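Morning!

As promised:
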Amino acid sequence: MLDTTLTWAGVSPAVGEIFLAFAICLVLLVDVFAGPRNRVTPTLTLLSLVVCAALLVSVGSVGVRTELFNGLYVADPVSWVLKLAALLFVAVTLVYSRGYMDARGTSRGEYYVLALTALLGIFVLASANSLLTVYIGVELLALSVYAMVAFDRDNGIAAEAAMKYFVLGAIASGVLLYGMSIVYGITGTLALDDLATRLVSPTPGAVLGLAFIVVAVAFKLGAVPFHMWLPDVYEGAPSNVTLFIATAPKIAYFALALRLLAHGLSGVSGEWTAMLAPLAVLTLILGNVVAIAQTSLKRMLAYSAIGNVGFILLGFVTGTAAGYGASLYYTLVYVLATLGAFGVMLLLTQKGFEADKLDDYKGLYSRDPLLALVMMAMMFSTAGVPPFVGFWAKLSILQQLWATGHVWLVIIGALVSVIGAFYYLRIVKLMYFDAPAVGKPLPEWQPGVRLAVGVNGLAVLLLGVLPAPLLSLCSQLLH
Amino acid sequence: MLVQILFYAFATVLVLSALGMIFARNPVHSAMALVLCFVTSAAIWLLSGAEFLAVVLVLVYVGAVMVLFLFVVMMLDINFEELHSGLTRFSWLGIITGGVVIFEIVGVAVARLGPMIHQGPVSEPAGYSNTAELGEVLYSRYAYPFELAAVLLLVAIVAAIALTMRKRQGLKVQDVNKQVAARAADRVRIVKMEAEKR
C-alpha cells in the first residue's frame, strides 16, 4: 500500500539530504547577492557542512536498517559512516583549495555550489535502495564534477580533459542504464532488495545485464581497461578540482559497488566476482607500472589512484561481507592519504607555479620541513609502509583474499605493492636526499591550511599506530 | 470502430514519417519528419487515454527539443557530405546493432507482451484521470527521486551558466546606459586649427 503520510519520523534519517538541498539553494542565492570573489560563500559552505554533520550525528543516526520514501531510500550504519566521511573529506578539500583559488582569482561561487551538489549525489548513492536512486545519485555527482573540471575553460588542456570526461562519462552512464534496463526487464523490479531475491540464477540475459553494470562501475572507479579518462582529467583539471575528484567521489563509487553489486546483485555474486577479478589484476599491474614512468605529480597520483582502485576491487572479489569491510577501510584510508598529498601540493603552488612536476619537490625538506614531513607520511602510507595506516589497509585486503582462498591474487597484490613502493619512495628520496631545486618560490605561510595538513598527516600516523577502532568499525558495519 | 480507424491511420503516418526521418538526405527534412513522428505518437497516446503524456510530448519534444535541434542544424556549419562518407564503410556495425535491438524487442514482446497485445487496450472506469494518477504516483511513491531530479536540473542550469557567463575581451556589446548618457560634446570634438600654409 502506498504510504502518503509525511511524518517527522518518516524523514528524519534523511535529514542530511534534506538539509543539503536547502543549503545548496541558500549558498546559490547568497552568492548572487554577495557578488564575485566574495568571502561569504566559502565560509557559508563550510558552515553548512558543519551543521549538516551535526544534524547527521544528532538526528540522522539509525541503529538498524531503516527504509524511507517507499523503499527507495535506505538509512543504515554504513550509509551514515559513508556520509560523515564524505562530509569530512569535502570540507577538508574546500579548506585546502581556498588559497589556491584566491591566488589565481578563480574563486567563484559555483565551485562551492557544485561541491555541495556533488556531495548530495554522494549522499544519495550512499543511501540508494533502488536502481532509480542509484542512477540519479550517479548523475548528480557526475554532472557536478564535469562542470568543475571545465571551469578553467580558456585553458586548452582543461577543456580537453572536461570534454573527454564528459563524453566518456556519458557513455558509461548509458552503459549503466542499459545494464539496469536489462536487469529490470528480467526481474521486473527496481528495488534492490527485491532484485537480490529475484535474480538468483545466471541466465544469459542476467549475465549480459550484469556485464554492462560491471563495466559502468569499473569506469566510474577508473579500473583498467576503462581508466583512460583518469590521468588526463587529473592532469588537465585545475589542481583544486583534481583534489576534489580524487577524494570524496571515491567514497560514492565504493557505495555504488556496495549497493549495486554486493547488495542488489548478490544473487549472482559468483558471476560478477569472476568479472571483477581480471579487471582488478589488470588495474593493479597497469596502475603501478605506468606510475613509475610519470614525471608529473598529478599524473603519478592518477596512476596511483588506478593502482589503489585495484585493491578496492580486490576486496569485492572476495564476495564476503568481511571483504567489503576491508574495501571500505581501504577506501577511507586511501582517500585520507590522497587528501594530504594534494593538500601539500596545493600549499606549495603559487600563481604561475603549479608544483606538479616531480622535480619541484627536490630538496623540499630544506625549504619546508613540515610539508616534506606530511608528504612523506602520505607517501609511506599509500605505499603500505608500517606504522602508517596504509599498511593495515593493504594487509586487511590481502588477509581477506587469503581467507577466501585467492592465493594468486594475494601474490599479485603483494608484488604490485613492492613495485608501487618504488615511485612513492622516490618522492621521499627527492624531498630528503636531493639538492634543493633552484629558483623555486618558497611556499606561503597559510597557518590555517598548514594546521589542517598537519592534522591530516598526524591522522595517517595515529590511525596506523592504533588501527583497531577504525578496522573493527569497518568490519562491524558490513556484518 | 472510429478509434481503430484513427489508430491505423496515425500508425501508418508514424511509420512512414519515421522512415522518412532516417532516409531524408537533408537534415532539416529529417528533423521535420521527426516532428511529424512525435505529433502522431502523441495522437496515438491520446487515443489510448494518456492525455497528459501526449500534451507533454508535443510541448517538450516538438516545442522545445526539436526547435533547439533545428537551430543547431541550421546554425552549425556541418559538412554533411563528410558525415555521410563513412556510412557504407561502417554499415555492418549499424546492421549488427540494429539486428540485436530488433531481436531483443521481438523477444521481449513475444515473451511478455504477447497476451496483452491480443487483448487490446484496457478500458478505464468512468471518471478515471490519467493525469491525476500520474501526479499521485510522482508526488507520493516517487517523491524522493522526483525532488532529486529537480536538483539535477538545477545543477545543469548552474553548470551551463557558470561555463558560458563570462567577460570576454573585445565583445561588441551595447551598453544602453552609456548610450543614453552620451552627450553631443562627448561624441564630436571640435578642434580649432590654424590653416596650413601651402
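The mean pLDDT of chain B is 85.

Hope this helps with the figure draft.
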